[in-house]
Queue: 2 jobs
Job 1
Amino acid sequence: MKKSKSLLLLFALVLVIGTVLAGCGGGNNAATNTGNTAGNTPAATDGSASGEKLAADQTLKINLTSEPPTFDPALANDSQANTVLKTMYEGLTRMNDETGQAEPGIAEKWDVSADGLVYTFHLRDAKWSNGDPVVAGDFVRAWKRVLDPAAAEPAPYTYQLYYLKNAQEYNEKEKKITDFNQVGVKAVDDKTLEVTLKAPTPYFLGLLSFYTYYPVHKSVEGNAKWATNKDTMVVDGPFTLTEWTTGQSIQVSKNDNYWDKDSIKLSTINFSLVNSSATELQAYESGQLDYAGNPNGEIPTEQLPIVQKKYPDEFIRKGIASVYYYEFNVTEKPFSNVKIRKALAMSIDRQTLIDKVTLGGQLPAFGFVPPGIAGGNGEYRTAIKDNYFTEDVAQAKTLLEEGLQEEGLTKLPTFTLSYNTNDNHKKVALAIADMWKKSLGIDVKLENQEWAVFIENRQHQNFQVARSGWTADYNDPMTFLDMWVTKGGNNDTGYANPAYDKLIAEAKATGDAAVRQEKFAAAEKMIIQDDMIVMPIYYYTNNTLIKTYLKGVTHDFSGAVDLTRAYLLEH
């Protein structure tokens, strides 16, 4: 389907390239806003913009549509957890969303060897929330937990540490290396951490601000449930966990032991846990919330055109480097048949879905890597077009018939499409199920699941077709493509292709931008055009309402939000 010229212009205006971490991190100074810019004006000494006055009550109120399953940085793998973890932890680096560059976090400075393989980080005088000093050994401990091959619950982002020398060899069940001391991380002394990579990684500094790389306090040892209790959460970031009422609310409060506490103006952030977009909008309009909408909340889709006109100084629409898709359990018949998967992908009308259902200005997706991701020379999506398939109902019918014959079937059995509880996901699922019914005569059972259950079912391949979305963890195509390697921690489809694994390994082994782009393009073609393990639907936009008195909130290129330097003006 041909993309709308106006939508392409929107993305050209709002997406900025930079080596950043997202989901996690990033930068974008060119957001196309229809009002409030979320406070990117120079700050006065009291933290407010020049000539403005801070509110006496610095309590920020925001909603999460789903409760984070865990606050253990090793086990987290969702955007809800990311937003809250970012308030409580800090890695060696943190991302500056304005510049799109990694800047000093717990590491005050660093040295990089001429070959780009050895990073020596010099830690500042930082403290944990209980007053203990943050030391290099805290990072070694954390990364060892992530890579532990005997972990009771494997870390979903283990592969993000495979950039370290011997990390993969230590983590793999075959245990090619059994001594963790051979992995490329070493505490030279309390203030010096030495990291050795297996290959030069241009985005490594940005990756270090991702939550899987956060340090953990020594008190976690021997306490499997430390991340479920506020009283055992010792953290090193701007805020500490002070309340957690399951299913109702989460509260974090300013950490007076944080090394940069003078830059933190908020005293408290209250996160409500409500999965109704209508309720969230009502709460915003009544003043119970200071912020509503993406990435952690939702505005009802049918209300987007209305609130855009009603609140022109508060509504923000921003193209982001994220993709919305359905994934197939390729280990289960009949979805083990690629022709059936292709038929489902080719038989829906993405632009109609956007124009009539989502109403958020998204872009139809025919690839997996979204606009806004850096490539070998400029933007990846500019060089490598997402034309891996087309919408063609006639061809879809032919493919479905051929696939059914190969499976010994005359009709596709009713199957279940799973999605996490959310008004907008439900509307999309209903619309797509209706398109499948009209185009292919297929009957679909829709099943909504609570977030934690949904995530667990996907991870254990307890599904047939499931809704999903992916946000960049750093600004490189690798963050969208290495997840599909055999037995990858976030590969919920069960896809296993040695040829694909080889392409990703080759891309990771070289610093040649042209070669990397060639490997990425071949890999993306393989998972979409050749094997169709996922069905791309659209590239996201963030639609957000932010009160004009709320300043200092930043969004990176992927749409992830950073609340840590926010503040409230008198109102």
Job 2
Amino acid sequence: MSVVDWIVIGAYFFVMVAIGWWSKKRVKTIADFFTGDGRIPWWLSGISHHVSGYSAVMFVAFAAIAYDHGLTVYIWWALTIGLGIGVGAFLFAPRWNRLRAKHDVKSPLEYLARRYDLPTQQVLAYSGAALKVVDIAAKWVAISVLLQGFADIPMAWGIGLTGVATMAYMAVGGLWADVLTDFGQFVIQLLAGFTMLFAVMSELGGFSSLWTMWDDLPEGHSDPVAGPVSTTLIMAFLLVKTFEYNGGMWNLAQRYMSAPSGSQARRSALLSSGLWLVWPFIVFLPMFAAPLIVPGLENSEQSYIEMAQELLPAGLIGLLLAGFFSNTMSMVASDTNVITAVITRDIAPVLVPKVKSLTERAQLTFARVTTVLFVTFSMTIAIATGGEGFVLDVVVSMVAATMGPISIPLMLGMLPWFRQAGPLAALVSWAGGMGVWTVVKWGMDGQSEAAIVGLPLVTSLLLYIGIALVRPDGNSDRDALIDSLNTDPPAAGDGAAAVRERPEAETEAGTPVPDAPA
């Protein structure tokens, strides 16, 4: 890398940190820190939702799959996410927002104590927080692999550089810093992505190469189902990602909660869905073409790095690397904020009851300290792993497979069709799904990725529904909570008129009742 590249990267870090510190003036309460107090515009929330959904893993592990097998990586990953978010725009996005607006919920798990009971909330909080630590550690490893490839920077230094920069703006600016830097990072992603695409088109002979290159690529690279990807795996991922990207991945629930109303949260989800269907495909195009530009690589995880170094001049490599940083820092920042919310609102008050009586300012300080500690802990885990084979195994297998058992009680608990599911259904569903994942992943040899990813979620889903049917456990307080999520508060909506949403699916589920007490 040249001096110009380092100047570009340095400028990127400076701008991100500056945006974070500028956001500090918007954060005066704990609600500002965790949900933006419902004042984040729907379009900004939607872009942030999209940007927070992927990291530098895309340019390492997924670039390897694109190099080896072609189009299928877009089909089983980005397409399933885009479709899943589109479904969630009508099922989940407005309800997340109404939890904040009607019940003063500041953490995605905060409502679980009332929907089920305190033990259920704590089990999901601890297991989800533990999962997120490992997930974020995988993201640190991914960006360190890219730094090593481009600049020969040791892994520990790469993780430390990115982690400290992320802490510098997240600890002071909270969710406002997160969404504003997400917007800046999205602009950088657009510049970096199109720069790489134009470089590849120029190398291969112009714009027409976008459709002519497929004839020159290895056989099967244009097939939607190829290599280790099967139709069953695609369907399993569609089911998993529908839960994961609509709130099972807690940080994405925050994006819906931060919008001004439930109807605007739906717009955010639809915007994010559209971006997922289009933008990853554009980013993947150079990865699909990589076998024509850097053929014969033994380690396909290096394909994007090798291609960039061959095609891009000084300065543009720095821009591309800044794009990698932006992907990782966006996801890690949003994960950090939501985990801090869970610790501050759900875990700490149970462990130390005095936390409940802290002043607003003291709660804000507590949240900022927790942010620093959590990021530091995840960085330590990332450095300790050494990074070998860690990225793909964690992100694809562990996170995708265990997110289902955690998200089933969390998300279905908001829907009117599952009002009879109580604490027993939630806990057995979680335990059954996690148990099946443990057996399939570690106790059985030769299981397909579809089984490892899909069986835990299907098990949790069936147990949750089955127990609710056999041992119904509804009550009036839970019914009031669920029904209150069918409509926006009278003062919320678009413009001056109140918006009382009654989508067809919600109307058929039951008649809303007056707002339940928070």
